[in-house]
Design a protein that fits this description.
The protein is of the alpha+beta class and 150 residues long. The protein is 38% helix and 29% strand. The protein has a single domain, classed as Jelly Rolls (Sandwich). The chain has four helices and eight strands; from the N terminus they run ααββββββββαα. Helix 3 (103-112) packs across helix 4 (114-148).
C-alpha cells in the first residue's frame, strides 16, 4: 500500500507559506459532526491532532466508515470541484485540532499564484488517489466478509 500524502508537506515551501497565510486554527470536540454529505463545501482542513472518520450513508439506517484521518491529513476536497457539496459525512472521533482554510479564498490565491494552484491540485489528486485505493480495499474486505457469512 502506498503511503498517505500529507498535503502541507507535499507543497513546495514557498507555496506552503502562502497557503498558511490563509490558515485559521480551529478545534472540534469529540463526536462533533464537522460536515454532512450534501452540505455546502466551502472550506477544508488539515488535521493537526486527533482523529476524524468519514462516513458514507448506504441506506437510511446504515452508514459505512470509508476513512480514518489523523495528523497531517487533508479533510475535505469538495470545495475544489463543482457543485461544491460534501460527498461524505465527517465526524470527530476524538478531540481534533486543525488548520481551517476558506475554499473561495484559496481558489482566488491559486488564480493569483498558478504554481500554488498546480501544486495544490496535484497534491489533492494524490490524496484522492490514495483514498480511492483505501476505500476500494475496504469495500472488497466488507464484501468478502459478507459473502463468507452467508
Amino acid at each position: 500500500m502506498t503511503k498517505a500524502i500529507k498535503l502541507l508537506t507535499a507543497l513546495p515551501q514557498k507555496q506552503r507559506d502562502r497557503l498558511m497565510e490563509l490558515a485559521r486554527e480551529v478545534s472540534f470536540p469529540e463526536d462533533t459532526r464537522i460536515f454532512e454529505a450534501g452540505g455546502t463545501a466551502d472550506r477544508f482542513w488539515v488535521i493537526r491532532s486527533g482523529a476524524v472518520y468519514l462516513y458514507q450513508q448506504v441506506t437510511p439506517l446504515r452508514r459505512v466508515k470509508v476513512a480514518s484521518l489523523g495528523a497531517g491529513d487533508l479533510l475535505g476536497w469538495s470545495w475544489l470541484f463543482p457543485p461544491y457539496q460534501w460527498d461524505f459525512t465527517a465526524e470527530a472521533f476524538s478531540p481534533v485540532r486543525a488548520y481551517e482554510f476558506d475554499g473561495p479564498a484559496v481558489l482566488a490565491l491559486c488564480v493569483e499564484d498558478p504554481l500554488l494552484g498546480l501544486s495544490l491540485v496535484r497534491s489533492v489528486a494524490e490524496v484522492l488517489a490514495h483514498r480511492l485505493e483505501m476505500t476500494r480495499r475496504q469495500l472488497l474486505e466488507q464484501y468478502e466478509l459478507a459473502r463468507r457469512s452467508r
